[in-house]
Amino acid sequence: MAYLSLRPIGHPLSHLADAATLQRAGDEAARREAALAEKLDVVRAGWGAERVHEKDKLTTWERIALLADEGTEALPLQSLVNWGRAFKGSKKLAPGAGVVNALVTIHGRQTMVIANDNTVASGSWWPLSPEKIQRGQQIALKLKIPVVYLVDCSGLFLPEQALSFPGAKGAGHIFKMNSLLAKNGVPQIAGVFGDCIAGGGYMPIISDRVYMTEQAYMVIAGAALIKGAKSLKLTSLDIGGPEVHVHQSACADVRVPDDVVCITRIREEIARLPTSGAAFYRGDVAPSVPAFATEELASIVPADPRHIYDMREVLARLVDDSLFAEIMPDVGPEMITGVGRVNGLWCAFIANNLEPTAHPDLPGRQRAGGILYREGIAKISAFSRACNEDGIPLVWLQDIAGFDIGVEAEVQGLLGYGSSLIYTNSTNTTPMITVLLRKASGAGYYALAGLPYDPVVQLSTPLTRLAVMEGRTLAIAAFNTKLDDDFEIASTDPAEREQIAKAMEETAARIEADMDPVAAAARMDTDEVVPLGRLRAHLERLLEAAWQSPRPLRNPRIWSLHDLVALTKPQASAAVAGASKTLVVAAEAAVEGLTPVRVAADGTFWLRPGPRDPIFLEPGAAVPVGASVGLLEVMKTFAPVRSGSVGVFERYAVADGAAVSAGDVVAWLK
User: Fold this and answer.
1) Helices within 391-534 (DSSP H only)
2) CB within 8 Å of 200: residues ≥ 6 apart
3) What is the spatial distance between Cα 527 and Cα 524, in angstroms, rounded to a whole number?
4) 193, 211, 332, 418: most buried, per Cβ within 10 A?
């Protein structure tokens, strides 16, 4: 780039926290990831391969493995749709809604494969199957990448037809999406491998090329529904097999003997398409890996959503060589904006800064991180617009508690600033990818390009919590009339108190269950749940797809981003200069031989990491610079209060859980 400097970011794990803290985070991440892997294995297995193999056919995943270039891995999306959901008329569940969506590399081109899972009720369409197929089509349309349909569908699962046939996104909308893809010049290739009944028969017809195996048939109605078919000894294959549709109706193009030949011919079709533009846009820059392993993210991001971490350390484990050009760092420091490369391809990032930042109008005061304030909203609105103008793919890293609230927020017009941001993200055409790292709360989730604002893909992690508010907070809101000013149950009647407490606990538990990322994926409220250590791999493939096909973009010499850099020179303010730092309190002149440790914001001070944990420091403990002395809770977010000098711990100045104000002394060092 002409005017932007990529600079090293990030530190080794040993510089970020003590070994015990890192171990706890890593162990919890491993536990959650193991539970996720078990579920994904169940989805992948479907109802088992035995019956499919008895018909001398391949399973859907075996077909995908043959489609993919050697040494590459299919990237599944929407894997957990319908997880745990039972349906009338079936003794079995419908893993993945009986559909597989996956990004597959075919002859070096990123391709969206949409396939019926033929192990699950012969590829029937269940509730949410149509929506899942359409989601795959939408991704392909946004990225302008080819679509391959692997059709093996016995039609709607009829006992639940009311949940999949009608409605704006019912099964019929699939065919509209077929038409929109064709209108926009997105190549569509279909392989028909078996049953293709009713709506399943329409699905491949608008494709540019249609292949049929000898076991395949496409019919509006099968033999079982045609009067006289039984007496004439007709089968669905006789009515709509390749003999009919390749040689007579011309509804299909090519007849092939079996699955393997069909997959080979589809690969040959993809090879005829234009090659990917990704290599051109890389220029002379070779793909590279981060300087710090992406797998370390599992130890960096705490499972407890109240505890903060350094988002720049996350970026350092996602971008090539851990090099990043942060743009407008001194404006709205509660948000991080900048660009780097991922696998050699340019990518812009917008991320929450979870660490406390300096208040722009009150010197010496700090504001909680993970919150949207006026300056940060204006900053990311301008940055998002510039990325859209420049054609740079944009990744949003969410860990947000919501918008700022209160008198100041309303006076400053946060509603208007937020509306500007929503308008920007609603009208962007550059590919956007949203990653919900942990918290995705309230209107903040919307504002940072959540799924309702049509990112190409939204990814969650096993730590993600997607909801308007947390379970306990929602229970308080729901039972507010029964509580006093301190949110305690107001009644003095023991029976009534017990009843209210039980109802609040049940409400909180239900909300917590709804917030689970697997539950969100089952409802299609997120596209895929991805282990933290796999985020970089997903971004690589998605960005490869984003740079594959021609679309409006500028070369880096004339990016609008350069203008933002020129117009936002660093401010000399000492408050702003320290805005992105964790609560580090500078050492002050000794008072009676002791050095105070102060807090920089109003909140609640805690002496221990958790209710059952020992206190951070015992009297006489050696204290290095930057050691955690306690936690300051502000708006349900915990930030470490760190020592600003070397010393020996003398004593705490406040009790555990004490309310403190900015500038209060919370501990003394000698």
Assistant:
1) 407-411, 414-427, 442-447, 471-478, 494-515, 517-522
2) 116, 123, 125, 151, 153, 154, 155, 218
3) 6
4) 193
The 10 Å CB-count burial string (b at 16+, else e) for 357-389 is: bbbbeeeebbbbbbbbbbbbbbbbbbbbbbbbb
CATH 2.40.50.100 fits 582-669, yes or no: yes
pLDDT tens across 209-247, in order? Answer: 999 999 888 776 555 555 555 555 666 676 778 788 888
- Residue ranges of domains in the chain: 46-275, 280-464+526-563, 582-669
* Single pTM value for the model: 0.85
Residue type, 609: P
Radius of gyration (C-alpha) of the chain in whole angstroms: 28
Domain at 46-275: CATH architecture: Alpha-Beta Complex (3.90)
- Angle formed by the axes of helices 129-143 and 173-183, nearest 10°: 10
Q: Kindly give, in sequence order, each residue whose CB lies less than 8 Å from that of residue 571, ignoring residues fewer than 6 positions away.
A: 330, 577
Per-residue pLDDT tens over the stretch 321-376? 999 999 999 999 999 999 999 999 999 999 999 998 988 888 888 888 898 999 99
Q: How far does CA 582 lie from the centroid of its chain?
A: 26
Closest by Cα among 585, 589, 665 to 627 = 585
Is domain 280-464+526-563 classified as CATH 3.90.226.10? yes
In the chain, the amino acid numbered 4 is: L
Asked whether this chain's domains 280-464+526-563 and 582-669 adopt the same fold, the reply is no
Distance CA 428, CA 455 (A): 9
In total, the chain counts a number of residues equal to: 670
